[in-house]
Amino acid sequence: MKSKLKIGIALSGGGVRGISHLGVLKALNEAKIFPTKVSGSSAGAIAGAMYCQGYKPEEVLKIIVETNFFRFMRPAISWKGILKMETVGELFKIYLPHNDFSGLKIKLVVAATNIIKGKVAYFDEGELIKPLMASSCIPGMFEPIMIGKKYLVDGGVLNNMPVEPLDGICDFVIGVNCNQLPAESNIKNMKNMIERSVIMSMNYNVYSRKSKCDYFIEPPGLGKYGVFDIKKAPQLFMAGYEHTMKIIEENPSILELANPKAKHLSL
């Protein structure tokens, strides 16, 4: 029996590292902890949408591996970006055919960045696929997505772990960050330096929201995986699963989230 508590889970962005979110969700579900609302940015929004649609975490992993998600991106001849996301939208339509937030089994909030106004844009109703595309639209790499009059890019630019849509609405909030970065790094080239700088910036806006979470899950060691290294999907999944199982073992109080009579506890 699922808990009557309102449990929110905020999932960060992080490229292919977001696959670790699926392992986290699997471990929580095995502990009978099920979210009533999910929010996410970028990869977290994608993982969240598939989960909220009703796919089991293992099923989502299989879909990602079998479809080779990134092959659906094609070059764009434009000053706005080097890749288009239209074909990614076609892929989403296969697994989210209703293309509407109301068709999801669990409530979802998707965060994107309004690049013109410099503000976070949240989506939780109406068309689903375009907000997902916008939320994972890395600036400079993909063409921005237009929704109405909003010019949108990756949600992680301003809010890489959107807890705000859950704060004050859910009894408990679980934040999950898949962008853990080692304290030291061997900077070999400009690409490494840029990637590390971007992750540091996104992590800053994640950690500034950590205090809003009752539980914060951050699988260690994910920094060794490239943000597009899809071949490491199984390892990323297991990293999220094993770390969450360890947290549950070391902090059994989290199991009270599966109990409607649970008290407000924090790690």
TrEMBL record:
Q: Describe the location of the PNPLA domain by residue ranges.
A: 9-167
Q: Does the keyword Lipid metabolism apply?
A: yes
Q: Cite the Gene3D superfamilies for this sequence.
A: Cytosolic phospholipase A2 catalytic domain
InterPro entries attached to this UniProt entry: Acyl_Trfase/lysoPLipase (IPR016035), NTE (IPR050301), PNPLA_dom (IPR002641)
Question: The organism's lineage?
Answer: Bacteria, Pseudomonadati, Bacteroidota, Cytophagia, Cytophagales
Catalytic residues? S42, D154
Task: Tell me the PROSITE patterns matching this sequence.
Answer: PNPLA (PS51635)
Q: Where is this motif: DGA/G?
A: 154-156
**Protein name per Swiss-Prot or TrEMBL:** Patatin-like phospholipase family protein
- At the top level of its lineage, which domain of life is listed? Bacteria
Name the residue ranges of motif: GXSXG.
Answer: 40-44
Please tell me which stretches of this chain the record labels as motif GXGXXG: 13-18
